[in-house]
Amino acid sequence: MLILRRVAWLLLFLIVGIMLTNQYIIYTKIGSIKSAQDPQMMAVRVSQLYFDNAKLKAQLVERVNHETSLENSATNNLETQRILEKEREKYKIILGQTEVAGPGVTLSINHTLVTTQIIDLVNALRNSGAEAMSINEKRILTNTPMNQFNEQPNFVIKAIGDKDVLYDSLTRPGGILDLITNGQAERQDEIVLPKATL
To answer: Which fold has domain 100-193?
Structure first.
């Protein structure tokens, strides 16, 4: 029981850390948006960032309640340990601590992108259900600085998730590629993303 409590607390601290990181990124984005020239677009983006922040807070409350429920109803230690281990693996993926593999899409772009385009592209893929991503074989986390990719002449963006949903969100008229940039998307049955590097 003591081990379960320690694991539950560890997961809780991981969740809080993810939330704080996301909040910092959101406020950083809001700060950069304030300098934009188009006030109407700025208002739309700020509204979206606040919506995303509220959604993350709701997810945190849900996870905390879930962990509390697991701890309080631990009648079957083996089953509880299995569930906690599954949750732990999920957070290791979110934090980029492990290699991850699965179906998804590969997007090839043969020109440079500015930071705002890269951020919009990554956010659009996340909103379409991407569970993990990499840009030019570098794992993308919530706190990855996107300006490091500014001078790169081309991009290979890999996203793991429902390959059909991701592909359709990229290629449909009015989809991500129409709105942000142009490139070639391809469905993949198996994509392997590296773990994050410091």
So the answer is: Alpha-Beta Plaits (3.30.70)
